[in-house]
Amino acid sequence: xxxxxxxxxxxxxxxxxxxxxxxxxxxxxxxxxxxxxxxxxxxxxxxxxxxxxxxxxxxxxxxxxxxxxxxxxxxxxxxxxxxxxxxxxxxxxxxxxxxxxxxxxxxxxxxxxxxxxxxxxxxxxxxxxxxxxxxxxxxxxxxxxxxxxxxxxxxxxxxxxxxxxxxxxxxxxxxxxxxxxxxxxxxxxxxxxxxxxxxxxxxxxxxxxxxxxxxxxxxxxxxxxxxxxxxxxxxxxxxxxxxxxxxxxxxxxxxxxxxxxxxxxxxxxxxxxxxxxxxxxxxxxxxxxxxxxxxxxxxxxxxxxxxxxxxxxxxxxxxxxxxxx
Length: 325
Description:
Blueprint (H helix, E strand, L loop, with lengths): L8 H4 L2 H18 L5 E5 L40 E4 L14 E4 L4 E6 L9 E14 L7 E7 L9 E7 L10 E3 L21 E11 L9 E8 L1 H9 L4 H6 L4 E7 L11 E7 L1 E11 L11 H23 L1
Antiparallel strand pairs: 1-13, 2-3, 3-13, 4-12, 5-9, 5-13, 6-7, 6-12, 7-8, 9-10, 10-11
Helix pairs in contact: 2-5
């Protein structure tokens, strides 16, 4: 049986300060999502109930169609029941999170949202990132795994692209990270990563796709690169400057790369983001697409972080003084 928590009158007097600290923390999160280079953001915050399917992206999102509900993109039996909304974010030091996350079961699960970034398609280098924590990974055949991708619909496995695999499952008993650029075909999963992710550890997956929306050739190819980092590795990345040079030079858990020499692949409002998991269980959080690395790896502004630390310190010091008096 849980014991009731008793709040002393002394601590109650400092509740307004604590509330201000929480409010400032929330403001920090909001300001971090106003970067004009951030094109799409979903932190799974502000939804109701436990089912994401059927709910439309809310005002906490960026670049998702708020007039179309989350769906799986098929006309048959829905494959959205394996996704469950959670109230808590995945904890990841140094990265801004907004509350909420999306858990998934080991069933076959597909869900996604239509993109709405206006009438102009994105061109140039597209960055993306997300947090993932596996709680169970199963051995499996080609097509199993966990991927975030872009296609005509969330379930479009034939012509989807910008694919980031936290678990590729391209071959039986292979669970390496992998990355795909261009249409890979139905259920195709590349096996170009250097290693797998461990269950029970939260990672940030950072992806870079070059020459998006441009005609690709053998002399001007599109190159996709993936980096998987733990919290400690992310801290090292930030300490080294948090830029592309730091990302390339920092020790990471695993990487993957893929090169495409033909075709043109668009990131636009005619596409949809798909989240697909098969045979794995875990949690997704903080999905971002942007035109800069900084936009998909936001951290608190130093002045705001310092102010927040000061408010928290005031709460603790004030409470300590009241207890001594």
